[in-house]
Each structure stands twice: as C-alpha cells, then as structure tokens.
C-alpha cells in the first residue's frame, strides 16, 4: 500500500514509537529522497505498508527519533555519508515498554532511520514463523506454504522447516550444494522447489546477523542489482529473510569460469581477446552507471564468463555488487572503513572519498592491465602500501613477450589509470569507443598498427 500523507513530524515519530509498543510492528524505516520520503512499516505477519511523506517531515521525525535514542544528531549530520549511528533504546508508552535497535545515518538527502523491535515488556520478540514451503509426505512433491493438501494423492501437507545447508531449503528454494563463500556470505546452487528453476542463493553469514551495517550492505546489494537490466550483469530474481532475520538474495545460476581462473590457467591474454572482454565489462558497468549504481569492487574474480562464450562478443556477467554505492556517494560503512579490493581500487576510493563511474573505469583499467601483462601494476602484501602506490606512483609499462603494445591499446590503459578522475574516460561509452578504435587498428596489417 502506498499513499501520500500529511502529518506533523512530532506526531509521526510518536505514531512510530507507539506503534512498535502496541501493535504487531517489527520494524520501521524512514528513507529520504530528493522529492519525497518513504515510511515503511513491516508487521509480524510479513506484510508491509509504505507511505510517502514530505522529506522535511521525515527529516524532523528522524531527528526526534535520534534524540529519543540519545544519538548525537549534529555529529551524525556532519559525518561521512552512510556512516551509521546505532544504539539500543527502550521506549515507554503508558505502562508498556518496547526495546528497540535504532540506526540513524546521514545521507545526501537527509537522515535515514531504521528501527527494529527486539522485545516488549522485557520479553524478547518471538521469531515470526512464515511457512514458505509444504511437502507431501507420500509423493514428496513441494507446494507453496499456503497449500493444505497434495493435488495428486490428497495427503495432508507438512511444513518444510528451513535449513540453510545442502539438502535443506531457504524460503521457496531447495539447496543443492555450496558453490562459493565470501567475506559476508555463502552462495548456494539450488532451484525453486515448486517450479524447478535453477538459481544461485546468496545468504548473509550467521556471524553478521546482528550487525545492522552488514545487513544493510547486503540488502543494498539486492537493491542495486535489481535496478539493473543488462545481459552482462547478473540478474536478481528474489529476496527474502530467514526466520532468524538473515537476508538472502536469489540470482540466476551461472555456469562458467571467472576471469581470474582464466588468467590463472592461461596467463596473459591475446590483445584482441582482452579488449573484447574489457569492452563487454564496460557495457555492463555502463548499465549500472546509468541506473546510478557504482560497483566499487570490480576485479577478475567478479567477472564470470559462462560456458559457450564467443571471443568477439563475450557473454560475460559482472557479479558481486556488495560494495556498491549510489553515484557520487560514499559507501554505507562504519567510520574509517572502505570496502573493496586494494589492488584494483581507484585513488579516491582508497581515501574514502565519493566514487562514481570513473572510479569503476580505473578498476577496469587495472583488470585490462592484468589481462595484457599477466601481473598487476602494483603488488605487495601491505594494503596501505598498495593504496599509496595507486594514489602517487607511476604505472610501469606493460610487458609482453611479443613486444610493446600498439599505441592505441596502451593509450586505453594509460587513460584509465590516471590519478585524477577528470583525466580518465568520462563514461563507459567513451571507454567502449576507445576499444573499438583500438580493435580497428589491430585489424590492420602489423606494420600499420603503429601509424597515427
């Protein structure tokens, strides 16, 4: 349900706090935007109400909530965008008390607030149980959670208890096997239990279940990818929460090799092949940038080339938007944290400054350098040393057994790896144009490739 409402800021805050005490609300979020703000109310039964309010009303309500939670609003407003200020608080309305987890973070458009109900009157909130799947004990067929009897043998269906491990289920999905593990989550291969569609399921690690920032980054990844529709970007098809409130993301299941594995097995790539791969990556990044999403962690392990890809038009997928941010904003991290991989990060990213599409193009330049050279432009064991090298050190020439690169190819790498964003290609489209020009030159006879 979405509606535009007119309400006083103080009254809005009182309704939110009172609602958490007296109703079956389990969480509330107020998210400002440029023109309006969204008030989202989630109930124990799983349904969600959304209301649209004026941004200044939402701002005032966030300030009131922050003060009630004893958060320092002035300090928060001046902190890096996206840095969360989190505390636990107790709210009393009459004789009733609610224990809340409150998060207030600064955004370009205002303060964003999230409240999660932890318990009432000293008792922890019981985990709500929503039945996602039922199964026939006779024929073993799966059914949606609302079904009662098997349509084949009329047996009474039994509830399927979630088990986030191979052989178990997550939401509506059956899990086959573990296919990957990262810093924040596990990735399983499985299928929709009812319709049989193959999927990949990314689940937040249990160790991060009670960390609001980790959960917000995870949800932010789902939101970021869901805004993108391009053949070179992984597709998100579903999102949900386990009974313990850990979020999971459902994506298309991809079979193939990562660019990291390909380079590890084959060494430096043939020049035209490297350019075609870089071009396809840039097309995927361009779709993200058009949607206002900056990847912030582009690297070979986050590029997958499915089986059957064609060299001159690679069917690749850009993966893992877990470090993504909105264009021109800092990442949603705790103060002093920067998420990404130092070997591939643009200088402005390593310093915690706002990133944009040109930051991703710097990372793409590093990836292209590695494809052509077989090694990274800067290497070492100390992340801080690597970050300083990206910010201040000159990039060495690419070395290849067959000799130097044609100037048009070397120019692309050099432009991408400029320290200043203003000196790099200004868009993914400009990068693609440079690659097309270089590919045209590579098609000439060898003795003409060094001609202007």
The top-level CATH class of the largest domain is Mainly Alpha
Helix content: 25-40%
Q: What would you give as the CATH superfamily of the largest domain?
A: Transferase(Phosphotransferase) domain 1
Which regions have little confidence, pLDDT < 50, spanning 5+ residues?
A: 75-83, 330-336
The tally of strands reads: 22
Rg over C-alpha atoms, rounded to the nearest angstrom? 25 Å
Query: Structural class from helices and strands?
Result: alpha+beta
What's a quick, concise take on this entry?
This protein is α+β, with helices and mostly antiparallel strands and 452 residues long. The protein has helices at 9-22, 55-68, 73-77, 212-226, 259-266, 271-290, 347-350, 357-373, 383-392, 407-416, 428-442; strands at residues 2-4, 25-32, 37-43, 48-53, 84-93, 96-107, 110-120, 123-124, 133-135, 142-144, 158-159, 169-170, 173-181, 185-192, 198-204, 236-241, 247-252, 256-258, 293-294, 303-306, 317-318, 325-326. The protein is globular, with a radius of gyration of 25 Å.
């Amino acid at each position: 349900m979405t509606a535009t409402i007119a309400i006083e800021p103080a009254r809005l805050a009182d309704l939110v706090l009172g609602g958490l005490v007296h109703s079956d609300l389990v969480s509330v979020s107020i998210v400002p935007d440029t023109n309006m703000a969204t008030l989202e109310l989630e109930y124990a039964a799983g349904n969600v109400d959304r209301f649209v309010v004026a941004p200044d009303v939402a701002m005032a309500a966030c300030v009131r909530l922050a003060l009630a939670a004893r958060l320092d609003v002035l300090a928060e407003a001046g902190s890096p965008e996206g840095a969360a200020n989190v505390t636990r608080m107790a709210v009393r309305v009459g004789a009733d008390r609610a224990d809340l987890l409150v998060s207030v973070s600064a955004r370009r458009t205002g303060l964003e607030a999230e409240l999660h109900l932890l318990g009432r009157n000293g008792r922890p909130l019981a985990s709500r149980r929503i039945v996602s799947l039922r199964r026939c004990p006779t024929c073993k067929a799966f059914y949606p959670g609302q079904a009662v009897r098997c349509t084949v043998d009329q047996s009474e269906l039994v509830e399927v208890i979630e088990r986030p491990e191979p052989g178990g289920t997550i939401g509506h999905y059956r899990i086959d096997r573990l296919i990957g593990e990262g810093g924040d989550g596990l990735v399983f291969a499985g299928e929709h239990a009812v319709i049989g569609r193959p999927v990949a399921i990314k689940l937040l690690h249990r160790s991060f279940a009670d960390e609001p920032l980790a959960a917000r980054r995870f949800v932010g990844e789902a939101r970021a990818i869901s805004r993108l529709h391009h053949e070179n970007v992984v597709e998100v098809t579903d999102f949900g929460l386990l009974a313990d409130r850990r979020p999971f993301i459902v994506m298309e299941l991809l079979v193939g090799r990562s660019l990291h594995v390909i380079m590890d097995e084959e060494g430096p790539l043939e020049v035209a092949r490297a350019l075609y791969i870089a071009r396809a990556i840039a097309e995927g990044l361009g779709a993200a940038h058009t949607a206002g999403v900056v990847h912030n962690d582009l690297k070979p392990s986050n590029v997958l080339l499915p089986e059957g890809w064609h060299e001159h038009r690679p069917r690749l997928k850009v993966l893992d938007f877990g470090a993504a941010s909105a264009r021109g904003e800092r990442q949603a991290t705790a103060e002093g944290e920067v998420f990404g991989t130092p070997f591939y990060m643009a200088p402005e990213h390593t310093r915690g400054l706002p990133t944009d599409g040109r930051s991703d193009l710097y990372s793409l330049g590093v990836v292209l350098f590695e494809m052509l050279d077989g090694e990274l432009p800067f290497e070492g064991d100390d992340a801080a040393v690597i970050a300083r090298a990206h910010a201040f050190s000159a990039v060495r020439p690419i070395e290849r057994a067959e000799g130097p690169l044609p100037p048009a190819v070397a120019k692309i790498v050099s432009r991408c790896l400029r320290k200043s964003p203003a000196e790099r290609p200004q868009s993914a489209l400009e990068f693609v144009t440079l690659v097309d020009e270089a590919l045209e030159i590579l098609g000439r006879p060898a003795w003409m490739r060094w001609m202007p």
